[in-house]
Amino acid sequence: MASATFLILVAAASLLASFAQADLQYGYYNTTCPGVEELVRTELEAIFADDSTLRAGLLRLHFHDCFVRGCDASLMLNSHNGTAEKHADPNLTVRGYEAIEAIKKVVEKACPLVVSCADIMAMAARDAVNFSAGPRYEVETGRRDGNVSMLEEALTNLPPADGNVTVLTQYFAVKNLTMKDMVVLSAAHTIGVTHCSSFSKRLYNFTGAGDQDPSLEPAYGKTLTTKCPTEKMASVVPMDDVTVDKFDLGYYESVYNHRAVLRSDAALVEDSLTGAYVALMNNASSLDIFFADFAVAMINMGRAGVLTGTQGEIRETCGVYVD
Ligand code: HEM
């Protein structure tokens, strides 16, 4: 009898815990906001028709959100004092805040205070990939939004653009992501651009002696110096110039051929494990494997530090002020 009571208590406790900390799930809004995923996709179609470069912007937005306090839309929050995540240096070039806010507005009309900004960001990143000719995969939903956003946390959690594989792997491990997730997710750089300032050291002062990164293929180094003369550091160049803005294997082809733009991307061929993956992907027949791997890695990233159940909040506007 006593053990039966104990079992009931344990079952009740775990039920309560599951309410407090529910898991993400596929189709979380199926009953509470049916059709929300199609609604988000339709809005995005119009947004991308207006500015196709926002596909890359929204993919990066989700990554920068997930790595700081988890995928909780804390990157969307504003601060009068300039102390929110979005004010941190690596976030100054992040784009797409207005797009998320515009989608949220439409979603709010359909289902007031039901769908989180964090889930809209995850759906938008997924659709951005698909609209760039990449895979379409299901995303888990059920995230809730945080209301804390701190500049310093962005500085300490976002991986550095000059990191080597050991360093990059550590930044990903903190988010429960593997080295494979890292080499797969880095291929998000198959779309989008980087400012010259983000890699100028590779061109003009790699070791402090006015030299170029010796790992950069010399002819490509020359092309990059033409596109990024020292007086034009605010210019941008595509990170995969094999197939600009197309979600495909062009990124791995660039990295394999020492034509990666960022040092963090170039580093991937300098480690035997990540280098083996790059070599495998430098082959047109690997496209299906890459697409499947990318979908898995994005789902893994989308689980980072999420707030669920009764944690966090669902708010009307994503970008409210924290101070
Ligand atoms: C491995 C660590 C990573 C580092 C060090 C890194 C660093 C960077 C840097 C420096 C830029 C260019 C910023 C600028 O100058 O404008 C950039 C752009 C971008 N990153 Fe990453 N990144 C990493 C991983 C990722 C991941 C995991 C994703 C998404 C899943 C991602 C998506 C993007 C996209 C799409 C762009 C282009 C944005 C645009 O065109 O506006 N990155 N990244």
UniProtKB/TrEMBL annotation:
Q: Where does substrate bind?
A: 159
* Residues noted as binding heme b in the record, renumbered to the chain: 189
Q: Which Pfam families match?
A: peroxidase (PF00141)
Catalytic reaction(s) noted = 2 a phenolic donor + H2O2 = 2 a phenolic radical donor + 2 H2O
Localization per Swiss-Prot or TrEMBL: Secreted
Q: What is its EC number?
A: 1.11.1.7
Disulfide connectivity? 33-111, 66-71, 117-318, 196-228
Q: Cofactor binding mode, per the note?
A: Binds 1 heme b (iron(II)-protoporphyrin IX) group per subunit.
An annotated GO cellular component: extracellular region
Gene3D superfamilies per record: 1.10.520.10, Peroxidase, domain 2 (1.10.420.10)
Signal peptide start and end residues: 1-22
Record GO biological process: hydrogen peroxide catabolic process; response to oxidative stress; response to stress
Q: Does the keyword Transferase apply?
A: no
The segment(s) forming the Plant heme peroxidase family profile domain are 23-322
Catalytic positions are 64
Per its UniProt record, what CDD domains does this chain match? secretory_peroxidase
Q: Enumerate the PROSITE patterns for this protein.
A: PEROXIDASE_1, PEROXIDASE_4
EC category: oxidoreductase
In this chain, Ca(2+) 2 is annotated as bound at 190, 240, 243, 248
List site positions: Transition state stabilizer. 60
What is its biological role?
Answer: Removal of H(2)O(2), oxidation of toxic reductants, biosynthesis and degradation of lignin, suberization, auxin catabolism, response to environmental stresses such as wounding, pathogen attack and oxidative stress. These functions might be dependent on each isozyme/isoform in each plant tissue.
- Family from the record: Belongs to the peroxidase family. Classical plant (class III) peroxidase subfamily.
Name of the protein in its database record:
Peroxidase
Q: What is the lineage of its organism?
A: Eukaryota, Viridiplantae, Streptophyta, Embryophyta, Tracheophyta
